[in-house]
Amino acid sequence: MDFKIQKRSIEILYKLLDGKNGITSYVTYEPQKVAFCPDVKDMEELIRATPESQGISSRYIQNLLQELEKEKEVNLHNIMIARNGCIIAEGSFYPYQKQIWQAVYSLSKSVTGMAIGMLIEEGKLSLEDRVVDLLKPYTNSITYLKHKSLTVRHLLTMSSGVLFNETGAIADDDWIRAYLESNNKFSHGTQFSYNSMNSYLLSAIVTEICKMPMMEYLRPRLWDVLGIHQVYWEVCPQGINKGGWGLYLTIEGMVKLGQLMLQKGIWHGKRILSEEWVTQATQKQIDTGEENGYAYGYHNWVSEKEDLYLFNGMLGQNVIVYPEKQMVIATTSGNDELFMDGPMVDKIQEYFGGEWMPEQQMEENFSDYQSLKLYEAKLGRHREKSHIVSSANRGWKRRRISEIKEREWKCKKKREKQMEWFCFVKQLNGICYKMETTRGAIVPVFWQTVHNNYSEGIQQIRFSRENGKFFWHVLEGVEEYRMEIGMGVASIQTIDYHGEPYCIAVTGMLAKNEEEITVLKIEISFLETPHTRMFKIFFETEEEIRIVANEKPGKLLIRQALNSVMDPEKAGFIQNILSKLDPEFFQYKLRFAIEPEITGKKQM
Hints:
- Helix 2 (58-70) runs antiparallel to helix 12, helix 3 (108-121) runs parallel beside helix 8 (196-210) and helix 16 runs antiparallel to helix 18 (583-594).
- By secondary structure, the chain is α+β, with helices and mostly antiparallel strands.
- The protein contains 18 helices and 24 strands.
- The protein has a domain at 422-602: Beta Barrel (Lipocalin), CATH 2.40.128.
- The longest helix is centred in the last third of the chain and has 33 residues, at 396-428.
- The strands form four sheets. Strands 14, 15, 16, 17, 18, 19, 20, 21, 22, 23 and 24 form an eleven-stranded mixed beta sheet that branches. Strands 1-3-2-13-12-11-10-9 form an eight-stranded mixed beta sheet, with helices on both faces. A three-stranded antiparallel beta sheet has the order 4-6-5.
- It is 34% helix and 23% strand.
- A hairpin with a 5-residue loop joins strand 20 and strand 21.
């Protein structure tokens, strides 16, 4: 079983590296994601308060947000900071919006851990229960012998040692069978090895015990109690919630989950989780062997340096809890990072970690608080860069004159851009280009793999102008996707991709390259995910275009792959094959897949 799944995984990887579209998935694809509904509101918002009322300076928080905004390696989407259960700062970076849920990837694991804690408190499960007993319908004599000592504790602490992992999940339909038939790379409970399929198996156990999906088990026990109704959890081909990933939450929903743990499992006087479980789940249960300073609890990361634990999802989805400081900080992002060892968490730690403590009492500062709120509002609005040197240190008259000149200059440039855009759109109206090769997609490669939703490649594009709006039509296979392009400002809309609706923001901008060739830049932000797809369309001649695509996060894939090449023993069979490839060639192939370049001819 291990060899067959690994062989299939390599086939998919090879096709991705070769830039091939129309990948035949080994996992049955059925549209399942529901549309985000803005009319559904979380029943209870957390209290808002000034930072000063909670012992923190508004200026201090604004400085943090400004540094995060300037950090090149940080692509922050939303951030929310709470102290003593009150929201003291919140910001959404354009075009993202705090009320839209986002896929939180492995942060889902911490919620799966909560479900296990509830079942243990109900007396329906224990840490030492054996998986082969809990999943008897899926067990045979061979799987029993392989995993007879595997327990719930081993799944929670990522110490199962089972080989079947996330890579295998894209290569087989029956994940429980594949997991139980898989071999072990070490004895259960002896080492730490991060594997999302451990979390999936916990979800399967919840489903088997309760005779309902984990999401439904949690609805009256967690979601309804906390007033979290903007929530969704993907399922596997067998209808079991994925457990280790697939959860969608709003930024405030994430803060609520962190606050619940901070309050030792109590919400408005009602006990949701046992205090004993919260304590055990958020303290060190196993060494990770990593050098990032974090141990692992029961599906939570625990700092070995200070009083801190966190829920973490790849690419920058975090809930950071500081128990002693009574703080919760949540982030959603699109960073090039697998875990929490990136510049974003480092910067947050620089401000709120270590010996820093909030003040016991602090006077209100209306000026600083107003400055913070204005800055938060600006983050959520489209802003054009200033091209006039700041005159902050000059006299007020000269500064006022400079500000007037800057506004006049901006208005002039805006009118020029609008006229240029109008002429461009008028010229392109009705023009169609057929691609010479079928490559690339409007959705990122990373996204396709995670969601088992593969593109058939871009075959044709055309442009249209309707009621003063500019549209881009992209043909992939038999599906044509119609997207409105906003001129410099995002156009928020919903796209149906193979039956799954996604809220997107599409922005367009005109530019000239060094050869004075007109370039149309299009950016598609998938607002419910950490992912963004970028296109540059070069109008080389009147008859030919060249399209260069990219995505963010994107470099992460290259970094991961190169690490695999350099460390062939880290994850087994696939890495051993990859290690035989030349690293530079492998990097080239990855860039070829992530940043495809295609040409198109004008159709008459």
